[in-house]
Records
---
Amino acid sequence: MSFSLFKVGTVWHYRFQVGGKRVQRSTGEADRQRAHPIAERAHRRARLWARDGREIPSLAELVAQWLHIHSATASAAHVKVVETFGRLHLYDLGGLSIDELTTDRVERARVEHLGTHAPVSANQWLKVLRLLCNWAVRRGVVPAVPFHVKALKVQKKPRATLPARLTQAWLAAVDAREGNRDGVRTAVRLMLGLGLRESEAITARWEWLDIERRTYTPGRTKGREADPLPVPGWLLEYLTPMCKPDGYMLQKRDGRLYPAGFTRSAMLAANQAVGAPHITAHRLRGTFATLLSRSGVPPQDIQRVLRHKNLTTTAAYLEVDMQTVVHGQARMAHSIGFGLQPQPSGAPVANSTAAAQQ
């Protein structure tokens, strides 16, 4: 069963029958190509109502439905992203039913978003919109995502990692700022030594630490894994005096857990104190991955430690060490007959053409 289009004067109308009920309406369009999707959406909504007794939800209603279903199972960060999208960033799309989210309307909403946000934020906005629409497709609400909008090309920026030469001074600056409060001091060491996410540091528990085997097994992770991680000696030495039989490693004095972002201010203060780049909780995890890579750990092993599903995700965490490249270039030159030796950074490279000719 489908619908038919016909003209009344210069305007296209549609007609269909669903559940024994005959429907005939005007599309308000004089152009048949614009009239067709209007009729198609009306027919789909009528069929959905006849089948399930419900209409296609608006985007605002879909956000509310997603939050109702996923709040108990999705991560707090994931829920917050969708909640913020629905509260602040619906623009003119909120009242439209899902099948009315045309490419033109989505692109115009994105332009409005770009008026107050960076392009990378606009890509995140589009990602959340696709997440919601794909969820509607899986539930059978609409047959396909109704718009086709590509993400913007964004200039990538260098990402900060904590230089190894500054690490001890940086940790000392964090300790000096926090005094006798162990929460942030312990959290930054868990993130630096084990590559934990901040949320995983917040929920870290003593019973997951095996001092004899020198391992720690995160029991509440983003991907629901429970893989043991080797604990380096310096971190084990730090944790052992505080070790308890069970309970959370990080707790406020009133017994409550720390909120997301609780390490940020101490990290920013430490950055300024020692002249470090912009280190945050996420970049501390990136520092952990980069230092492992520079120490010769294969990417596949780093992927396992970071608990990434895809090696591409791991690769995005690894920053290039140009000094490694310099030494590699020198070894390469030597192997092809130029006889070059590793040069200090910024030093001129000697012309060894004569040596190559000998």
---
Amino acid sequence: MTFLHSPLTLRRGPALKNRFMLAPLTNLQSHPDGVLSDDEFRWLTLRAEGGFGLTMTCAAHVQAKGQGFPGQLGIFDDRHLPGLSRLAAALNAEGTHSVVQLHHAGMRSPRELIGEAPHCPSVNDEFSARALSLDEVKESRDAFIAAARRAEAAGFHGVELHGAHGYLICQFLSAEVNLRTDEYGGSFENRRRFLDEILDGVRAACGKDFSVGVRLSPERFGMDIGEILHLAGDLMQGGKLDYIDMSLWDVFKEPEDTAFKGKSLLQWFSALPRGTCRLGAAGKITTGAHSQRAMDEGLDFVVIGRAAIVHHDFPKKVEADPAFVPIALPVPEDHLKAEGLGTAFLTYMKSWKGFVAEPAQTT
């Protein structure tokens, strides 16, 4: 049995003091130009104080035209560096492994945010997206690499490449979305080229102790679980990656693909040889018992989302009580405010059905 509170070494960067990673959670709290706000600073530093071994930002967009939602943290311009540097210093002071998640929404960039049609590996009518030219593909690739350099300059220990949830890297991986006929489309080797070149570029541009992870999702968004298993296995044994963060929606459920029934999603990925790479996953890990079960079934770390929203110190609570269960939903507004959610984040959480309690009616 691997204990949740034992340290975890990575091939690069400082060891995690425990097996809890804060999920990269959308919170809408940054300024319109992508500059870090005080609310987002408080939200993230409170989680580091709460004991997370790795504290990750929300998805930070690497190009202005890759913005995915209002109030998104930016890392595409040097004007973002002062806020990012302030955040990195505060996180590092708490002894957490600090990470920026690098993101480009691709076809999922709202036109009203970016001021033009969204961009995609190929034309996509559903999202009214236009195809990236070959030069634009390379510009977006290089923007990820430049953003990683910016994160390192700010003082973060590493970055995670967001290759999940139907965003740009995921769009390149998808045979349904990526209909290109050049070297970035067609075969799976070609469709993964965009991710591979970003990873190679980050490794070449950043220091030898800078950690790099990748987030992948094996279902939805045009993903093929067989291809993602192959990709994850290759990446984990390739020596360039420090960890994979699998977004599974529910780590204990069986895959939707009938060819992969009989084992849970977690078990399929935890069975892969991983070399010196570490494997974690997110998906309905909401209690102390869930966390330990996921570890017992083969993960190196657990990725905590909703439970971290309602309890900034979830790792400490589980350490004190291995059977810890979070506060029941819906959660009172005052509780969430005390947990470091600013006005924009709280408003966003009210859009999640049944998450935030309605204020008591007075007569």
